[in-house]
Structure formats: structure tokens, C-alpha cells
Design a protein that fits this description.
- The structure is a single chain.
- This protein is α+β, with helices and mostly antiparallel strands.
- Helix content is about 25%, strand content about 35%.
- It has 2 domains: about 1-15 and about 115-245, no CATH class; about 25-115, no CATH class.
- The protein has helices at about 30-40, 95-110, 135-140, 210-230, 235-240; strands spanning about 1-5, 10-20, 65-70, 75-80, 85-90, 115-130, 160-170, 175-185, 190-200, 240-245.
- Strand 8 (about 175-185) and strand 9 form a beta hairpin.
Length: about 250
């Protein structure tokens, strides 16, 4: 298992963490919303406003999810009936973001009893800018299944998906998916998008912060390992990406 030590020219565009429950929440009582907002205010000080709607002939029971944003309005968390979603458009590093996720999870668990967790998905979306005249797939990316000497592939046609890891057991299903696709041309450079997705599904994880933290770490470390291996040694050096072996 490998982990990034330094990334001088980071490529990350956004990072998402999605946690889905086994069943719907019963709801959050109104008098608990403000204390919840205060508890997570150190990370997400911008609280959702309670909206009003016009009179309708039918009764509206559900209005939508609650969104708490950071002071820059770049990172936010959505609290829904059967999920918590974290979106990081301004990402420092995993060890800085994981405590935020756990903090919000604990605060929400105090406001309302969270059901068991049915699925966890971590998604990294990276953007790579490569000079047009220098483009060759094998110079920048590996192929997890077949490593040919040369790829006769046009940039505009790139839409490739891999499942380099998949493991099923009686208690869960774990998977890593990589999706590389062309995004366009900007200033004589090809723009490519890479999604590295790690998931733990078909599970029933107790809604306790220490258990969730262990699962999140496991999923994160696995997808980071595959991301590092997906870049060629040449490109890792070019991007200033240094890593260490955890094994």
C-alpha cells in the first residue's frame, strides 16, 4: 500500500465523500437544528436558511436536504433523509479533512439517531493538462490490465474505465473504479479528467464514529494506492508526486 507524501503540482479538482444509510432518518427536530449548526460551525459556519413556501392544495411533507457551507463557500456538507455528502472543492490533505467528516457525523448523531450505514463512496476527481505536441497515453498513464508498448488512440476518443480491485464477502463488497476521459483543449493543452472511486457497499456499518473512521481510512488508502500506480514514473516525477510504502 502506498501513500502520497508530497504533491508539488496537485491535480485535484474536487473530492466527495458520500455516506448512505440503511433506512431513512425520522427527521431532525427544529430546536436541534441551531445547536447542530453551532457544533459544526468551526468548519461550516454558513448555515442553511429555513425556507417558506406558498400555500398549495396538497400537503408538502419533505422540503429537501440541509446544506452547511464553509466561509469560502467552496466546501460544504449536505444532510439528507438517507445520506450525508461532503464536497471539498478546496482540499488540503486527507488528514485535515477526515476530522471534519467525523466531527459532523458525531454532531448529527447527537441531534438525531443515525441508522446503520449501508454504503460509503469516496470520489477523487483530478484534472491533468498535457501539451498537445507531447501527448501519448503511455507517457502519462498506465493500463491496469494490458500494458502495450504504444497506444494508437486519439485524445478526443478517450473514455476508459477500469475496475482494478473488487472483493466481495458475506459482510460487504469493496471496489475501486478508475475512469479517464478527455475534457477538452485549453491553451494548446489537452485536459483529461480522472475519477478514482472507492466504495464499500452491501454492508451494515454501525453508526459509531470510530467504526466509520476505520472504514473511511481503509477506503481512502486503497484508492490513493491505485491512483499512484495509475501515473507513470515519468509523470509522477514531473508532477512532484512523492510517496511512501505503508506495508
Amino acid at each position: 500500500m502506498k501513500r502520497i507524501k508530497e504533491y508539488i503540482d496537485p491535480s485535484l479538482e474536487t473530492f466527495n465523500v458520500s455516506i448512505n444509510y440503511e433506512r431513512d432518518l425520522s427527521g431532525v427536530e427544529l430546536d436541534k437544528i441551531s445547536p447542530l449548526g453551532n457544533k459544526i460551525g468551526q468548519y461550516y459556519p454558513i448555515k442553511p436558511k429555513l425556507g417558506l413556501i406558498k400555500r398549495r392544495p396538497i400537503e408538502l411533507i419533505k422540503l429537501g436536504y440541509m446544506q452547511f457551507m464553509d466561509s469560502d463557500k467552496l466546501n460544504y456538507v449536505n444532510l439528507g433523509e438517507d445520506f450525508i455528502d461532503f464536497v471539498f472543492n478546496k482540499y488540503v490533505k486527507w488528514d485535515r479533512e477526515l476530522p471534519k467528516i467525523i466531527h459532523v457525523f458525531e454532531a448529527l448523531n447527537e441531534a438525531t439517531e443515525i441508522p446503520n450505514i449501508a454504503k460509503i463512496v469516496l470520489t477523487y476527481i483530478d484534472l491533468f493538462e498535457i501539451p498537445i505536441e507531447d501527448f501519448s497515453y503511455n507517457n502519462y498513464f498506465t493500463f491496469p490490465i494490458i500494458n502495450n508498448e504504444k497506444w494508437d488512440i486519439k485524445f478526443q476518443d478517450i473514455f476508459i474505465g477500469f475496475v482494478p480491485y473488487e472483493e466481495s464477502s458475506e459482510i460487504d463488497k469493496k471496489k475501486v473504479v478508475l475512469r479517464l476521459r478527455s475534457r477538452g483543449i485549453k491553451e494548446e493543452k489537452y485536459i483529461l479528467s480522472l475519477e478514482t472511486v472507492g466504495s464499500i457497499d452491501n454492508c451494515s456499518i454501525e453508526s459509531r464514529s470510530n467504526i466509520l473512521k476505520n472504514y473511511l481510512r481503509e477506503c481512502h488508502d486503497r484508492i490513493e494506492d491505485y491512483f499512484i500506480d495509475f501515473l507513470t514514473p515519468k509523470y509522477k516525477t514531473e508532477k512532484g508526486l512523492e510517496f511512501e510504502d505503508l506495508d
